[in-house]
Structure prediction request, 582 residues.
Amino acid sequence: MRLDNVGRSANRPTANIVAEALIKTVRIASSIEPLPLPGESNGLGDGGTTVAFEGCGIASWSVTAFLFDLDGTLLDSVYQHVLSWREALEAHDIQLSVWKIHRKIGMSGGLFTQGLLRETGRPLSPELIAAVQEAHAEAYQRRMDQVRPLPGAQELLDHLSSVQVPWAVATSGRTGSAAAARRFLDIPLDIPVVTRDDVEHAKPDPDLFTEAARRLGVAIEEAVVVGDSVWDLLAARRARALGVGLLSGGYGEDELIRAGAYRVYADPSDLLAHLDEVGGRRVGRERDGQR
Amino acid sequence: MRLDNVGRSANRPTANIVAEALIKTVRIASSIEPLPLPGESNGLGDGGTTVAFEGCGIASWSVTAFLFDLDGTLLDSVYQHVLSWREALEAHDIQLSVWKIHRKIGMSGGLFTQGLLRETGRPLSPELIAAVQEAHAEAYQRRMDQVRPLPGAQELLDHLSSVQVPWAVATSGRTGSAAAARRFLDIPLDIPVVTRDDVEHAKPDPDLFTEAARRLGVAIEEAVVVGDSVWDLLAARRARALGVGLLSGGYGEDELIRAGAYRVYADPSDLLAHLDEVGGRRVGRERDGQR
Prediction:
């Protein structure tokens, strides 16, 4: 059975559409049985996903994939990034309050640097931007021994893998960030880790998340984007994904809700405890005798 | 002329009372002339303040005094404090996410440490609390060269002095914090700087602010408490002062409003630009021929 599209239309309020999609996903997920891990998958349309399973033909099912931001969402690294940016900016005679840096963390490094320099009214030569980015990378490298996985991050990822829910990581950091992710978290090699180097535009553009969904072979509209910053949530909205906010990057709850978070949890551990609220149930093969 | 009390009553909504008090203060302030700096002052009642001026008898006037928190309000030091607490906790094998530490900054060190240890479920021996506090002080000392005054902090304080508005600093830090304040800011020696060591209970108890008001000789109910954390604003409410929030400590705007902020500004510079909105006008001697 091919699942119907959820029936999005530009004239209907987003909240209703999201609620319907969730209800539908959960209803479907509840009525079907566990399924072996997909060997290969292809996104088809924006309502359901058709997945090819080796040795068992074609099964159609709706699945909520999870696309995770990295810093502040899986890793407790935001405050180290913030003070590294501060150090890098000061090294180039740019004075900026630390809280303003914090509120821009999670944008792409280029946009971030441009935004900060615009606030200071300094001219934005590409050389200066590159130099500040390099100084940040160096300063963060020195602080990386203070970075830890957030509570429940590994357990959440392991749980999703064990119940065969597709997931990926999408970070505004460069390829080095992917290496950092693997230093702190056990991420299987077949899990996509999309970085700034893989896409043309980073957050708040939606490219990182749409690319992650593409690599998973799932429709972005069926995916849940989990992030700690308003930039993750704005990117999620632009991608038409469902945004879920975590407080673990230091933003306030209302800031995340105003940016479009459907739900806000404290950290990965709290999200894991409430996974059913965001459609993260065990999904499996449908047995309806129609094929 | 002795000013009437604003007429607070437990049955009236706080917002109305606050608005009335502000309107009254601004109206009074607008109608009167500049005044020489008080040589001595005494708080009398909770509606107006009677101040004795050397050589010119007794003048009665309503004045909005400003009581400032230090870290995150006048100094850009919160993120350095946060990572210093993190380091101190880890040194004692206490793992806690950095954002949770951030959200407790501004409480008294003792309450803060107890709160953090309670979250981790560890037993709270006084020795452990003292050891963590000492490790924090040492770690913060190492980071203090990264601390800066917040934009507009010195200008705001200088402006208040120049227009003869009383002001004081009230910090949950120990006496060492007062020395730090004077390292980064030019605070005249006759300005009260109240620290944790001067009162029995620190924020969110109101003692720091009531003590600061007492030293200024102003009624706490006529004072504006300026702080970056919800603990400042809760303490302000408990003291029946007017709370004004600043974003410069990294809390979100809604968090501060929910905690009771009457207004929220970005930083001291932004507050200075909008000082008339919180009753911070030039106040002076009343000439009404009634005395």
The longest strand of chain B covers residues 242-246. Chain B has two domains: 3-74+149-277, 78-146. Chain B has eleven helices and eleven strands.
